[in-house]
Write a structure and sequence with these properties.
GO molecular function, one term: methyltransferase activity
Mean pLDDT: 77
CATH superfamily of the largest domain: Vaccinia Virus protein VP39
Pfam families: Methyltransf_16
Shape: globular
Largest sheet: 7 strands, mixed
Structural class: alpha/beta
Number of strands: 9
CATH topology of the largest domain: Rossmann fold
Protein name: Methyltransferase 21C, AARS1 lysine
Number of domains: 2
Organism: Sinocyclocheilus grahami (Dianchi golden-line fish)
Bound molecules: S-adenosylmethionine
CATH class of the largest domain: Alpha Beta
Keywords: Methyltransferase, S-adenosyl-L-methionine, Transferase
Radius of gyration: 23 Å
Oligomer: single chain
Order of helices and strands: HHEEHHEHEHEHEHEHEEHHH
Length: about 325
């Protein structure tokens, strides 16, 4: 019996080797091991200690779950098989506190970590402090506003990357279109985009739908609700095929929409049999809940299709 288990660290240690040792081992090493000053977290990666300075100033000043998940994944055999960063040129978008930047650098990559100007001081501090004397290539830190002056500041002819990495850059903000433009700008033939994210909002699904127009995508892993994908740019022909598929989907949605209207208009002249079936299927007993169900259905449908296509890619 453990009294006052708190964070559960002692319980985890006591649990010892009873179940799946390796899994437990890396999970434990990626949870913050201790706080030795407010605003600092300490992690261990491949036996090396990483101390990250955080603050509550902005989204970029705290560590987000997708960064943790991708770091953990890259420590696994599967991760290293899929993402080989040794001596590769890597660009990170929205690097934030720099936890992932540190790990990328420790894995031997030539990293350029980017973010908004106000984030760069802390990012540079964490990156240098944790990699000095342990790194193969000196990392660069650069300002990058998504979608802004990309051709001037990062021309494609001189800025080619083997990998572009981004964690939790899709959430509720006004720059999703600019983010997609940025991903497309940097993903040239031969570039692999590694994108890890939690799916939180309906707007995330819109981003994903747009993303699928331009990228072939494979789901590598799901860890603690974070999905880790690799993606490559589609050719213009493939983009065209996807647009046709989307048009077909829109047609189907229009049909669904018109059957919805028929269902809520009892005096409608359309076939009552079909409407009754639709209402029963959605288990709606009034107009408002029908509306809600229809909306939910759309979100679920979009998401299921996204997951299905990611899984098909993985099998293919
Ligand atoms: C949710 S945080 C994720 C940080 C880090 N990748 C992680 O997973 O811990 C999103 C990051 O994107 C950056 N960001 C947000 N909007 C941006 C924009 N318009 N241009 C460039 N970076 C942006 C933020 O400063 C922040 O560092």
């Amino acid at each position: 019996l453990e009294i006052g288990a708190g964070t559960g660290l002692v319980s985890i240690v006591a649990k010892g080797n009873t179940e799946n040792d390796k899994q437990q081992e890396y999970k434990r090493s990626w949870a913050p091991t201790f706080y030795y000053r407010p605003g600092k977290e300490v992690f261990s990666f491949l036996g090396q200690e990483i101390t990250i300075q955080e603050s509550i100033d902005s989204y970029g000043a705290t560590i987000w779950p997708a960064a943790l998940a991708l770091c953990r994944f890259m420590e696994t055999l599967q991760g290293r098989q899929h993402i080989d960063l040794l001596d590769k040129s890597v660009l990170e978008l929205g690097a934030g506190t720099g936890l992932l930047s540190v790990v990328i650098t420790l894995l031997g990559a030539k990293l350029t970590a980017t973010d908004l100007p106000e984030i760069l001081g802390n990012l540079r501090y964490n990156l240098n402090k944790n990699t000095r004397g342990r790194r193969r290539h000196e990392p660069l830190v650069a300002e990058l506003y998504w979608g802004h002056k990309l051709d001037e500041t990062f021309p494609r002819s001189t800025h080619q990357y083997d990998y572009v990495l981004a964690t939790d850059v899709v959430y509720y903000h006004d720059f999703l279109a600019e983010l997609l433009v940025t991903m497309r700008h940097f993903c040239q033939p031969g570039t692999t985009l590694v994108w890890a994210n939690k799916v939180r909002y309906a707007s995330d699904l819109d981003f994903i739908n747009n993303f699928l127009r331009y990228f072939d995508i494979t789901l590598l892993e799901e860890l603690d609700d974070v999905r880790i994908y690799v993606a490559t740019s589609k050719t213009p022909e493939q983009e065209g095929d996807h647009v046709q598929e989307m048009n077909k989907e829109e047609e189907d949605n229009d049909k669904l929409e018109s059957s919805k209207q028929d269902a809520v208009e009892p005096n409608s002249t359309s076939e009552t049999g079909n409407n009754a079936e639709e209402v029963e299927h959605l288990e709606c007993d009034d107009t408002q809940s029908l509306e809600n169900k229809m909306e939910e259905n759309q979100v679920d449908k979009g998401f299921q299709e996204f997951v299905r296509s990611a899984e098909e890619e993985e099998e293919g």
